[in-house]
Amino acid sequence: MAQPDLFEQSGAGLPDWLLRSKDLRDELNRHAHAYYVLDAPSIPDAEYDRLFRELESLEAAHPELITADSPTQRVGGTPLPQFSQVRHDVPMLSINNGFSDEDIIAFDRRVSEGLKTDVAVDYACELKFDGLAINLRYVNGILTEAATRGDGATGEDVTQNIRTVRSIPLRLHSAHPPALLDVRGEVLMYKADFAKLNLRQREAGQKEFANPRNAAAGSLRQLDSRITAQRNLRFFAYGVGLLEGAAMPQSHTALLNWYAELGIAVCAERANLKGAAGLLQFYAEIGQRRAALPYEIDGVVYKVDSVEQQQKLGFVSRAPRFALAHKFPAEEAITVVQDIVVQVGRTGALTPVARLAPVSVGGVTVTNATLHNEDEVRRKDIRIGDSVIVRRAGDVIPEVVANIPERRPADAREFVMPRQCPVCGSTTVQSEDEAVARCAGGWLQCAAQRKGGLLHFVSRRAMDIEGLGEQLVEQLVDRHVVSTPADFYKLGLTSLAELDRMADKSARNVLDALEKSKQTTLARFIYALGIRHVGESTAKELARHFGSLDALLTASEEQILEVDDVGPVVAQSMLRFFAEPLNRELIEQLRAAGVVWMETEPGYKPQALAGKTFVLTGTLPNLKREEAAERIEAAGGKVAGSVSKKTSYVVAGEEAGSKLVKAQELGLVILDEAGLLNLLEQHA
Ligand code: D41
Fold first, then answer.
1. Is the pLDDT confidence value at 487 over 90?
2. According to the model, what pLDDT value does residue 48 have?
3. Alpha-helical segments (H) within 307-362
4. What pTM was computed for the model?
5. Separation between Cα atoms, residue 245 and residue 138, nearest integer Å
6. Is 190:295 a contact under the CB 8 Å cutoff?
7. How far is CA 637 from each of CA 607, 628, 656, rounded to the nearest angstrom?
8. Which atom of ligand 1 lies closest to the CA of 298?
C-alpha cells in the first residue's frame, strides 16, 4: 500500500504505530545528524540503538511503513549483482593542480586578469580531501541516486552503498526542498576508522588496505552494502551539479552554508581570504595542522567565491578556471631497500630499520625507514632488494608501508634478527607479551641505550637543552665524557671545546643552555628521567598529583594508582625505576647540580582554569607558544589543537589564520597575549 493512503484512510484517529513510526524516524534522523554531521552527539549510543530497534520492529510488523528516508534503510540490503552506469547530467569536472608558491601567484594573476580587476579577489579556501568524488541526487528532497565520478561524464551507481553513509541525509532538512539537487563531494574514511579496519582485517587474515583512500574506495565498491555499512564512511560536500526548483546560491560560501542548513555535511575547516597572500597563508596554516586532522588531505582548494565571477572565468579543457588545488608534497614514494639494519633505542628495544636508496618524500630526502619489529618485517614480507612504498607523514618517522611483489629481484634476501645486541653484544630477549626484542645490557653495558637516554633527557619536551644534539651527545658518550645525565652539568668550556666542530662560541652556548635548563618544572624533570611508560602527559599528571619529588619517591603502588590515567603497568615501571639505587643516585646528583623546580602542596590541583580549553594561533609578541601552553596548563587549563564549540578561549597572535576566522564564526572569546596574561594573573 502506498503511504499517502495510510494517512488518508485513518482520518482523525491515525493508528498509534503510524504516528510512532514517523516520530521515531524523525528522532533517529535528528540524532544521526547531530552525531555524524554536527559532531555533537545528542543521546547515548545505547538509547539510539533502542529507538532504532523499536522502529525496526514496527516496520517488520507493518512493511508498508518503510520509507526511503527511514534510518533502517541505511544498513544492509540485497547484494548488488554489479554496478550500473550513470551518466552525469552536468559533467563532473576535474580540478587543476598547483605545487609551488609561484603556481599560486600565477593562478591569482590569471584570475585577476580574467576578471579585469585590480582589487584582491575573494576566495573560498577549503581542504582537499583524499577520498572519492561522488554525486548525490536529491529529487524533491529525497536521496534517489548516488554515483561515482568515473571519468567525469559517466560513473557507477553506488546508491545502495551510499545509503549506509550516516553523514549523508536520506532526506534533506527542508520543508521546501528543490525539485532536483545534485550535491557533489568527497567520500572518505577517518584515519582512526582506517586503523581499526586494518586491525580487523589483519586479525581475520584478510588483506590490509594501504591507506584510508583505498579503504574508502574498496568499501564503496562492495557488492554487499552490509559490508559498506560496517566501514563508517564519511562525506563532505564541496560542489553542485544540476539544480532545479531553487535559485543557485550566489557564492561558494553561500552554497556550503545552504548545504549545512539542508543537513548535508560540509567541512568546518574553511576560510574566506583575499588575494595570493591570503591563499598562501591558508596553505601554511593547514599544512601545520594536517597531521592532527582526523582524515587525510592531500592539499587545499581555492575557489573564486562569487558565482558570477566563476561564470565569467569559464573553463580550460575539463577544469574550471576559477578553482585550483594546491597540493602538499606527496607523503608516499617508491624506492629500494638496500639493507636492513638493527637500531637500539633508549629502552633497549631493537628496531629493524630499512636503509633505502635516497628518495624524496613529503619534500624531504629519506634514506632510512622504520620496520617497527621483526613481526612486521615478516608480515609485510620485506626483503633486502625489494622495491617498497615508504611513507612519511608530518613529524612521524618514515616507515615502510608495503613491498611491491612484482618488482622483487631473484636475489632478494630475508632479514634475520640478531640474537645479540649489535651495539654492546649483550643477549637479546623477546618477552611473550611484546612484539619487540630488547637488549638485556641496560645503561651500563649498552652505549646505544645510554645515548638514547641522554638524548631524551636533553630533548625539547624534557630538559630542553638547546645545542646538545645527536652528534654532540654521540661524541660525549664515545669519549666517555658523559655517561649519565648528571655528567652534563659537570661539563666545562675545555671539555666541550675539545670536541669536533665545536667552536668556543657554541661551547659557551651549550653551557648557557645547561645553566638555563636547571630552572625547570617537576613534570619536565619526571619526563626527562625516561622511565618506561611514563610519557609527557603521565609525567604532568604525576607532578600535579604529588606536587613534590619526595612525595613521588616515597609513594606506594596504591598511591601511584590513584593518579589519573595511571594503571598497573606504569605504576610497576615507576616502582622498579625508583627501587634502583643508581637511579636514586642520579636524582640526587641532578639536585646537587642545582636542578630545581617549584614544588606545590601534595595533591595540589590548580583549579583556576580547570575545565577551560584554549586554542593558540598565530605568533604572540613575547610568549613562545610552548611557554603560553605551559602557563595555561599550570593553571589547570587544557590546550587543544583545533577550534570547536567547546573551546573556551582562542588566544590569537600575529598572522592568526583560519582558526581565528572559525573562532569568530562561532562567537568564541578571543584573547591577545595581554588578555591571556590578565586572565592568568586574575587566577594566580
Ligand atoms: O576535497 C576535494 N577533493 C575537492 C575536490 C574539493 N574540495 N573541491 C573540488 N572542487 C571541484 C570543482 C571546482 C570542479 C567543483 C574537488 C573537485 N572539483 C574534484 N574532485 C575530483 C575531481 C574534481
1. yes
2. 80
3. 307-313
4. 0.61
5. 12
6. yes
7. 8, 11, 21
8. 3
For the record, the C-alpha cell of 231 comes out as 566501514
* The three grid cell numbers given for residue 272, joined into one nine-digit string: 574566506
Mutate to test the pocket of ligand 1, among 238, 248, 305, 322 (most ligand atoms within 8 A of CB): 238
Closest CA to 258 of 189, 187, 176: 176
Ligand 1 atom with minimal separation from the 129 CA: 1
Residues 447 and 478: beta-carbon distance below 8 Å: yes
- Residue that the C-alpha cell 583545533 belongs to: 642
Contact 648, 673 (CB under 8 A): no
Options 116, 128, 380, 605, the catalytic residue:
128
Contact 125, 272 (CB under 8 A): yes
Nine-digit cell string for 614: 584554549
State residue 600's pLDDT score. 73
Burial class (CB in 10 A: 0-12, 13-18, 19+), 568: exposed
Using only the alpha carbons of the chain, give its radius of gyration: 30
Question: To which residue does cell 634478527 refer?
Answer: 417
Cα–chain center distance at 292 = 3
Contact indicator for 452, 349 with CB cutoff of 8 Å:
no
Residue 43's alpha-carbon distances to 21, 26, 231, in angstroms, are 19, 14, 22
Determine how many CB atoms are found less than 10 A away from the CB of residue 92: 22
Q: How do 387-391 and 332-344 pair as beta strands?
A: antiparallel
Is residue 128 flagged as an active site residue?
A: yes
The alpha-helical segments, DSSP class H, found in 483-567 are: 485-488, 493-497, 504-517, 522-528, 536-546, 549-553, 557-561
Amino acid in position 190: Y
Residue 542 confidence (pLDDT):
93
Residue 422: predicted pLDDT: 93
Tell me if 370 sits within 8 A of 351, measured CB to CB. Answer: yes
Which residue type is seen at 338?
A: Q
C-alpha cell at 670: 578571543
Confidence grade of residue 595 (pLDDT, cut at 50, 70, 90): very high
Q: Which residue has the cell 563531494?
A: 185
Residue tagged 628518495 (cell numbers): 359
- CA distances for 549 relative to 85, 518, 521, 525, 560, angstroms: 69, 15, 11, 9, 13
Answer whether 269 contacts ligand 1 (Cβ < 6 A): no
